[in-house]
Specification:
Number of strands: 0
Order of helices and strands: HHHHHHHHH
CATH architecture: Alpha Horseshoe
Helix content: over 70%
Strand content: under 5%
Distance between the termini: 82 Å
Number of domains: 1
CATH class: Mainly Alpha
Structural class: mainly alpha
């Protein structure tokens, strides 16, 4: 069973349909779709097909399985999905453009925001009007800003705690004199 069996995941078929027009990019999912994992049985169908094809696995099957893994809630699955997409990206120069967005999504889900931004920006260089990539750029920027603010708050809290500790030590040393 291939991606055609999953009507709600038709972007799999569009991604490698052979078309080189904006039809492919119009079929890209929004980042929110990456947050809804496949049912275990659906992912197992993709895994079985991938394993059945063995060393002669088709690009479509490999892509479908990679996308299913990226949608997973499991970090190891997500990492494997990114690895498979990276293999496709390297091995199939004519498919690189299609892989950019999915690699950006996979890295975003993994918290690799620098990598996600790099892939997404590469796609936006090719297609400045791509709404899905623009939306993903905003999500990446928001996460980076949020984590940056959390980092500043943590460092600020540690600095304040250190200042209190030093103050207590100084005060204690002055009393002993």
């Amino acid at each position: 069973m291939t991606c055609e069996s999953f009507e709600r995941h038709q972007e799999c078929d569009r991604a490698f349909s052979g078309s080189r027009s904006d039809d492919i990019m119009a079929g890209l999912p929004y980042a929110a779709d990456a947050e809804s994992p496949l049912k275990p049985a659906e992912l197992q169908v993709l895994r079985s097909q991938y394993e059945k094809e063995g060393e002669y696995v088709s690009l479509q099957t490999k892509f479908n399985f990679a996308w299913g893994l990226i949608k997973s809630d499991g970090r190891n699955d997500q990492q494997e999905g990114v690895r498979l997409l990276s293999d496709i990206f390297r091995a199939s120069p004519d498919r690189r453009r299609e892989c950019l967005y999915y690699l950006a999504l996979g890295n975003y889900k993994l918290g690799n925001y620098g990598e996600a931004r790099r892939y997404n920006d590469s796609l936006l260089e090719l297609e400045t009007g791509n709404l899905q990539a623009q939306s993903l750029r905003s999500l990446i920027d928001d996460k980076v800003a949020k984590e940056g603010m959390m980092g500043v708050a943590i460092v600020g809290g540690l600095a304040a705690a250190a200042a209190v500790g030093v103050g207590m030590l100084v005060r204690g040393a002055q009393r002993k004199r």
